[in-house]
Give the backbone structure.
Amino acid sequence: MIENIKGIVEKKTPAYVVMNANGIGIKISMSINGLEAVPPKGNDAVILTYLHVREDMLDLYGFATERERHTFMQLINISGIGPKLALTILSGINPDKLKDRVVAGDVASLTSVPGVGAKTAKRIIVELKEKFVKMDEDSLGFEEEDTGESILFRDTLNALISLGYKSRYARKVLQDLDKNGELRGELESVIKKALSQLVS
């Protein structure tokens, strides 16, 4: 599997990004939420990827965070959900909200995503609820106590690193945001807050 692509953003559309890696333009399909984290054309970036292999086609999908990629992988393992629908779901609901809605058994909010009917929504809940609950239990254990970092902190840190920022600088900015009570809300908004500090 192609783990990630590092290069220059050559083109950015509402559905995909083209990365120039060593002179080769690589098209990477991404969710709307993932694309928001990709810097503008002409900038360096690192995008986490998943290569979907079919008999007649190779499709490359990209993600802003490891959490988004992991959720994508969980979705495509559900019968009836392919990569394109998984991206549509992640465009309409970010991974954290998706987890909350699955654990709550919220069929209505899932069916608000284009292409997701009641049967598919129920299948998602049945397949993922137990996994998400277990993930929460694991997070409440040694992992949270060892690092002292929230899931939001780690996802934002991973996103900043994927954009090419050094881990120690990104971590310092996030720690400052946390001290000021600004490390909260949606992942996308926290990433924007951090980027404004990193470029200032």
